[in-house]
Every structure is written in structure tokens, then in C-alpha cells.
Fold these 2 entries.
Entry 1:
Amino acid sequence: MIVAVWCLLGVTVPGVFAAGSESGGSKKSVQLIFPEQFGAWRAIGPAIAAANTSGTAALESGEAGLLERMARDYSDGRNQVSLTIAKFRDPTGAYEGYTAELTPGMKPSSAGPLSAVDDANLVVEIGDLLVQITGAKNITEGDLQSLIKELRTHADPSPLPPVRGYLPEQGLVDGSQKYAQGAAGFQNAVTSIGHPEYVGISSEMGFVTGAEPEIMTAQYASGANHGALLLIQYPNPQLAEQHLRHLLGVIPGGNARGALERKGSLLSVVIAPSSATYGAKLRQSINYETQVTWNEPSTTATDPPIVSTLVKIFIGTGVFMLVAVVLGVAFGGVRVLTKRFFPGKVFDRPEQMEVLQLGLSGKRIDPRDFY
């Protein structure tokens, strides 16, 4: 009987702890993220599993780290919309999934800084969540902001990859930007900008060797000028220089219009520019600057000035000297006054004084003559 009880505890108790850690951690099920209501919209059914219909399912479930995707329908009594939420391993994976859903022509929306909209869908990235709304044009601005605010409380606020901020803003074709952290994402990125011939260089970029490059691509157009930009960021300049040498021999176009250049940890390729002048202008517009930091200690604005330090040293020394004088006078004065008013009673008592006498004269030395 005792053995059976312990076996039962051994099975059930770990299960309880596992369930508690699952519900209290960051791996909350997407089903629990869906609100029952936002604004005038109420859920009209339970959340159900949803599939990726954009053709990037392999990318999401692979390097992007998709954990779960579910959808739920809402209605305001007149219209109906479908809300799909995909949860990724981290915000970086969600950003890769977000750019994979973008198509040229999608415009930024008021839903947030990472949002895009077309006639049919609204795509928003919120931390590690990728949110898609079908029929979003029927949702008022207030109701939409209420939904975004609610979802943001469930999202991971970790920062996104910095390479996304290096793309120039001027001339950027909305919806053409793509981010990749692996070979599958890179293939999708260069194919989406119309240059599949660059797929072959992924073997020299370091995805397999652990160099961990991060990729950003986008199309640009300004009047009659056009081109595409490929940015490859490595963790440090040494890896960037190493892979620069590997990529120089495999970049399509050689050193002409597809020239590859390095600046710090960032490699840049201007793909098929309409002119060499526009290609140079596009590269010069990249928002990337290198910084050199010295490890040698130096003074800062918070260090006190030297004059103030010297003044404090002199003041401190003067205080110590004054205290020494006061204590010396006090000690000597008390002794002299005591011997003056109480001679032979406190200090130098005759019975306690011993003087060695050589006896050279007949007069005996009186100890009271000594102070």
C-alpha cells in the first residue's frame, strides 16, 4: 500500500509542478492571449489552430521559431473580422515572420511602428507576437488601439535586431524590406526582391559555420532610379572581413554593379542599380557608423576639479593640526595646573619619586624640586 501511494505521488506531483511552471512562465498558450472583447467587437467562437497560407510556413517553423498559430473570429453585430496570432520563440523570430508576410505596396499603418496594411489584411508585430487581421478596415481606430494595447501586455518587450535600422528611408519601397537570420530566410529575401541569382552565395555567408550573420534586404526607387540593397551584419569586424574575402568571388556581377564593401561589422551590396551614381548614393545613405572605444581610464564630467580637491586637502590638514594643538595644550595645561594647586598630591608624589644619588655632595636632593 505504501509503495503504491509513493508511486502515485511520484507521478502526480511532478505533473502539478510542470503545469504550474507552464502557466506562470512565458510559454502561455496563444489561446489565452485572445481577448473576449475589444471595443465593440466580441468573440463569436473559440480560438482554433490556423495554418500559414502565405507560403512561408517552412521559414516560420524553422529558423524563425514559430511556437503556435491560432485564429479567432469577432463581430460587432454588423461586420465580422478574423484575428490570427502567431507566437514565436523571441521577438527576432517574430520580426523575421513579420517581414516574410510583407509584400511590395503594403503601407505603414497607425496600429504601431511595425505594422503594414493593404486592402485585405493588417499585419502587426508586437514583441514575440505576429498579429494578422482580415477585414481590419471595418475596425475603428479606437477599437484597434484597444486591441493592440491588450496584446502588448502579453508580448515579450526584448529589443529587435539593430540591422533593421541601417536601411535608408529615402526611396524605400514600402513592404519590400526582408529580414533573415538563416539560409531559408535569405533565400526568401533575395527572391522577393527579384534577384534569385543571389541564393547561391548563402553557402559562403557563414550560416552553417556559426558566424551568425543577420540579413536585411529592400528595394529602392526614386524617379527613374532604382536598385536593391543587401546588408549582412556579423557579430564583429573580424568575421565580416573573413567572409568578405569568401563572398567576393561568388557575388553575381563581380566588382561592377554588384560591388561588395565592408564597413566595420557590416557588409553591403548594391544590387542592380540603375546607375553607378545611384548605387554609390544608396550605399552612402546606409545608417551605420563605427565607433572605437578605448579601455584606458580617463576623467569624466563627474570628477571634481583639481583646485577643489587641493582646497579640501588643505582644509583637512588644518583641521587635524588644530585638533593636535588643542589636545596638546589641554593635556599639558591640566598637568601644570594640577601640580600648581595640588602640589605633591596627584603628580610626582614624594613617596613615589625615586632619584639615584651619587653622593658627591652632602646635600640630599629633594624630589619636590622636580616637575
Entry 2:
Amino acid sequence: MKRKILLLVCDGLGDRPSPELGGRTPLQAAAKPNIDALARKAMHGLIYTLSPGVVPGSDTSHLSLLGYEPQGFYTGRGPFEALGAGMKLNRGDIAFRCNFATVDAHGIVIDRRAGRIREPETAELASLVSDMRIDGAHVRFRESTEHRCVLVIGGKGLGAEVSDTDPGATGMSLQLSKGKDAASAKTARILNKFTEIAHASFTESTVNRERAARGLPPANAVAARSGGIYPSIEPFCEKHGLTFGAVAAEGLIKGLCAALGGEVVTPPGATAGMDTDLRAKGRAALAMLSEKDFVLVHVKATDIAGHDGNARGKVDILQKVDAMVGEIMNGAGDSTVFAITGDHSTPVSAKEHTCDPVPVMIYAAGLRSDGISSFDEISSSAGSLTWLRGIELMPLLKGYAGRNEKYGA
């Protein structure tokens, strides 16, 4: 019997023991009756989404979980962010993932997220520098989710081997971008010029005058990173023989799934923030599952809590994930293979991605059970799926769904 597949990815799911939680991880501390009821009937393990010791990015780890080896075609996160923001990319365009940021009078970055500014303010700021020409290149800029934004540079003689302007930390100046070759040096010059124009435009904007009056940090700079050329990728349906849909709100994941040819839905109330309506995502996933062979559900809030060092917030989000899982399982029935994992670990103690593996759990009616009573980093390590690589997950899910051909006679 062929089954459908639903993969739930909680961004930054993996964690480490937290003193604030009595030495438990957020997954261990969360009350999650629906997930743990499923855990008792499921197979468990730990998964390195890339390879042991490698610190995964969200883009490369999702590609791996979806069955794509990033090496060889991955050029940077920027193109996926641009697609997720609704921008059209042409062959040869260079796209950057950016943040609205706050710099002081000396150009020092004091907030890389500008107080987590979001729409409609970001849209108003982006409109000031949305379309221009610099040194003969077509430069386009657009807001994305929350404090994020995207920059696309198109034209002749451009290269993608450029350094970031985002210093990656507060207390440092925005960096001058540099190129590794002549074509990339041209791109870097254009990026640096755009950075100057954006700073001047944003500093004098109505948005920032109003933010100052409210005591909020100004979004007076653009910090760019992860530049790359839009790669050529085999569509998901051709690679796996499955129709593909995704329920996501974050620009990166929306763009990545669109690049793979998937249909992407963002239901009302679903956001890429802590205020997201996860039950709306669950309902959207069930509706999509009636039409698609494979559905990805992405939750960003777990990663945000990790980056913010917010252990209690991560516990709260996981408890909301549990409620969503309960609704999904009530509606999915026995015709679905259901898997839960993360794309990487973002421990609240580190506030950043780490190389720690993430737990993974696979359930389908009639499959083996590992007899484990809780889904968390420690309990799952005793399961039968231990030490998977991300690239191995899709073949497993397809196999349990009856979607793989027999190898041999």
C-alpha cells in the first residue's frame, strides 16, 4: 500500500541541558502528551542533517532532509530568500540575504535586527530603495519576513564570490564587501554603493523618525550576507516521484520549496515569529495532504527562541507544536507516514547553531516501535534509527510509505 508522507521540521529543535529548566532540554521539559503518545508507537534516532561535526545552515540542512546533497550546486542562501520574498530571478542574478539593522552615528552595528522590526514598516523602508541602477546593474530590494530583506543585483559581468557586509555581531562596523575576482569585485562595488544609499535613505525616513519618537531602535542600515547565484535544481517531483507541498511562513523555506517546484501555502495567522498560529498550519497541512504525496510543515519559532536564549519560550512553542501534532494525527489516519525532526540544533545556551545532532521520530501504523516513551534528544538516542545523515531520511520515508522500487530480483 502506498502511503502519504508528512514531515514536520521544527527549526533549531535540538538543544542542550538548561539550568533554567533543571538541567533538562526544552524538549524534555515541555508537556507534550500528543507527541509522546506517538513516540511510544514510533521509531527513534538521532540525525546529523549534514555530517558529524558540521554546523548546518537552515538552507543546506533542509536541502539534505529533502534528499538533496548541497555540495555541487549550493551557492548561497540569498537566492532562496529572494524567491521566498516573491522576487523573480533571472539567470546570472546575484541575490543576498539581508537584515534591516541599527547602526550608531559612528557606523557601529548595535542591533542586527533593528528591534525585530516587521511589516508594514519594513515594506515602507524597502519602497525607498526598491529599484535602481548602479554602475549599469539593475538593483532590486524587497522586505521579507520580520526584520529580513533581500537584495538582487542583475546585469553583465557580475560574480558571486563576494564577502558579506554583515559583520555577524554587534559592536562592529558594517564591512566593505570585497570580490575574489574582477567580476565579483564589480558586484562588491555595487553592493557597497547600495549600502550607502540605503543608509542615507533610511536615516531620513518617516518610519525611523516615528520609531525614534516611540523609543525604538531605527532600522537605518542593510546588512547583507550569503550572496549567491540561483542554482539549477532537479524538481522534487522528478527526483522522488512524489507531488510536493509545503506549509511555511519563513521566506527562506518558502523560497527553497518553490525552487524545488513545490506548492507553498502560508495560512492566515501563520508567521515566522513566536506569534504564529500553529493550529492553522496543522489544518493547512491536512488540507494539502489530501492532494499531495509529500507535505513539509515548517515551524520557525523554536529556532527564534534558541537564538534569543529563551528556554521558557522554547518550551511554550513546543507545547503549541504538540497541540498541532494532535490535530494532524486525528485527521491524517493510518494512510500517512509521519516524521518529526529538526534541521539543526540551536541551544538556548549557545544562542546559535551547533553541530549537535537532532532527534528524529518516524511513525506509521503497523511499523516497528522502539518502545521509547518520550521524544527528546536523550531518549531518542536509544532508538533503532540512531546516527542517520539528513540525506538518508527521504529514502527511509519513501520506503516506509511503499514508494521505493525493489532493488534486485
